[in-house]
Amino acid sequence: MFGSVTARAEAIVMRLACLYAVLDRTFRIRLEHLEAALEVWRYCEQSARHIFGDSTGDALAERIMRALRLQPNGRTRKDINRYLGGNRSKTEIDQALSILESAGRAKMTKKAHAGPGRPVERWSAVERSRA
Prior knowledge:
The chain is mainly α. The protein has helices at residues 2-5, 9-23, 31-52, 59-70, 77-83, 90-102; strands at 75-76, 106-111, 120-125.
């Protein structure tokens, strides 16, 4: 979400710099106009980071993330399905886990059974420090 909200930084900073130039009754954007615009943008960026943090914007992915945070050793797909009440399709869960993994918020490890059968997937939260 943060990336979506802040994606047009350059265009917005230039518009702000233009406004500052107009307020100074000049037809040229000077360094001080750009610096002032950048400071306003930094404030906006910090606000967006505070509001959105590392949210994905996907409700199911956020629910799964909460489940993963509650279990430091991670959860299997079966555990995740149970946490969700057993009423989500494999496709929905796959998509949400993919969102979390591509955002760097969750990771998956596979562990083989002692006997026959598919390896067990275990999903864990990846906690990132906020700068």
